[in-house]
Design goal:
alpha/beta
């Protein structure tokens, strides 16, 4: 009779730990530099996106994340919430901004649609300090 009780307690403990970790990951705000990227064919983003092998329109709310945040594709097709000043927007992760190819470790490489949704003045497009979290 002891074994089922011990197993039950261990399962409850594991579930509690996973739930707490999940809540923390979703509520933490990562400081980042948002850069602008073209995800379409023949744009500055290079080839098709890592997550789905497709190109994406500048009118879509999509991003590429630095290698450590991209996390071997674990954030592929998931949404993040980007915060800029008093505004925020949800964008889909479609690509990696490869740190081994010159992308810094704190980059959210965003489409023009993201910049427009955050109402960043066009004269300031290029780099902006933002925070982001899993949506």
């Amino acid at each position: 009779m002891k074994h089922p009780t011990v197993i039950f307690i261990l399962l409850i403990s594991l579930f509690s730990t996973l739930l707490t970790s999940s809540i923390h990951a979703r509520s933490s705000h990562n400081k980042a530099i948002m850069t602008i990227n073209g995800f379409g064919k023949n744009e500055d983003g290079g080839g098709p996106s890592e997550c789905d092998g497709k190109y994406h329109s500048d009118n879509k709310l999509v991003v590429a994340l630095s290698t450590r945040w991209y996390n071997h594709g674990k954030r592929c097709s998931k949404f993040i919430k980007i915060h800029y000043k008093d505004r925020s927007v949800k964008a889909k992760v479609v690509d990696e901004c490869d740190s081994s190819r010159g992308c810094k470790n704190n980059i959210v490489d965003a489409s023009k649609a993201v910049w427009k949704a955050l109402r960043v003045p066009k004269s300031q497009w290029g780099e902006a300090k933002v925070t982001w979290s899993d949506a």
